[in-house]
Write a structure and sequence with these properties.
two-stranded antiparallel ribbon, binds 3-hydroxybutanoyl-coenzyme A
Length: 318
């Protein structure tokens, strides 16, 4: 986008954002824009890799080879999503080592939702249907984020998320069409995952520390409450279709608003879980740090090989 000669770099940034164009890593950007992007993209990436654990718990216990291979593909996808997003964050001048250290030392967060246990196979259905469904609701607008690498990573991730959501919903349909016990297992999973999924969209807009700036910078295109409402409006008819009951006595279609009215999530629970006091926080972090330590030899070997290749290349060039 050609810049008028007298334009300051702040004016150019503002003009690009106003024109719904993309800011690229080599472009000048305000420091707080860069820091906010690192924060959000890093936590998104952390969520993807921690998110592998709840489902990884069922890889060896899936009820059929077909289900096992689908779940394996999904968990592998989540690892890839983490890598795309770490790659996008690194274009902002932070290293993978720093990002993982921020996660491992609790100085950066990951999504609340991955701190809940997965005691039954129906949890695999509920996670795909609800959690990945919420992720799609949240991530589709991020495909229009003003920061180029994040928006482009989202395009590919959203394509894979739709497979994740469909396979989860298919598990729930299968269970609801199964025995009485299987349908009860699906309902019990919905009861446990519904409210933590609504919390995935973040605190209410009145308590959101970052939304206003993120909306101004066109990182976020909708507020937390707007996306939560979109998710409820889309998901309740799906639950109705398979004969499951959303565990919210205040849920009711509001003809005037053209949306569902629904109850207030327990924001104290969100704050507690985000602060580390959820059912599985300690287990998730211990597993994450253990995997990181177990992989140290791979990182060391890769660095040693890269150094050897660099030395050889320099030798040849000399
Ligand atoms: N879990 C953990 N922390 C949360 C949270 C949640 N559900 N919701 C909000 N927070 C944190 C924020 O990170 C922020 O803390 P910080 O200042 O230390 O970063 C604080 O609570 C205040 O929240 P805000 O609303 O002000 O924060 P944001 O404007 O960043 O909004 C968000 C929160 C909606 C999660 C936003 O960051 C976002 O859209 N992130 C990208 C999507 C994402 O990260 N999704 C996580 C799940 S990934 C996933 O689902 C993978 C799929 O494959 C299953």
């Amino acid at each position: 986008m050609p810049a008028p000669a007298s334009e300051t770099r702040q004016n150019r940034f503002d003009r690009v954002i106003a024109a719904d164009q993309r800011i690229e890593p080599d472009d000048w950007m305000p420091e707080d824009y860069r820091k906010n992007l690192i924060r959000q993209i890093a936590q998104h990436a952390h969520s993807e890799i921690i998110g592998m654990q709840p489902e990884g718990n069922w890889l060896t216990r899936a009820p059929s080879l077909r289900r096992k291979s689908i779940l394996l593909a999904k968990v592998q996808d989540e690892a890839g999503h983490g890598l795309y997003l770490y790659g996008a964050a690194e274009t902002l001048g932070i290293t993978r080592h720093e990002l993982l250290d921020l996660l491992h030392t609790g100085r950066q967060k990951y999504a609340n939702i991955f701190n809940y246990p997965t005691p039954t196979w129906a949890d695999m259905g509920a996670i795909g249907w609800l959690v990945d469904g919420a992720a799609i609701t949240n991530q589709i607008p991020l495909c229009r984020c003003s920061f180029g690498p994040y928006a482009r990573a989202m395009v590919r991730i959203c394509k894979e998320e739709s497979f994740h959501q469909r396979q989860g919903f298919e598990i729930m349909v299968t269970l609801c069409n199964g025995t009485v016990e299987q349908k009860a297992m699906a309902q019990e999973a919905l009861n446990r995952w519904w409210w933590p999924t609504l919390m995935m969209f973040g605190p209410p807009d009145t308590e959101s520390a970052h939304s206003q700036k993120s909306m101004q910078w066109k990182i976020k295109r909708f507020t937390n409450d707007e996306l939560r409402q979109k998710f409820v409006d889309a998901t309740v008819p799906q639950a109705d279709l398979i004969g499951l009951t959303v565990p919210d006595p205040e849920l009711a279609w509001n003809d005037e608003r053209g949306h569902y009215d629904f109850g207030e999530p327990d924001w104290d629970e969100l704050r507690r879980v985000v602060a580390g006091d959820g059912p599985c926080n300690a287990e998730r972090m211990a597993t994450r740090k253990g995997a990181h330590d177990d992989g140290a030899w791979v990182r060391e070997a890769a660095v040693a090989h890269a150094e050897k290749v660099a030395a050889r290349t320099a030798e040849i060039a000399a």
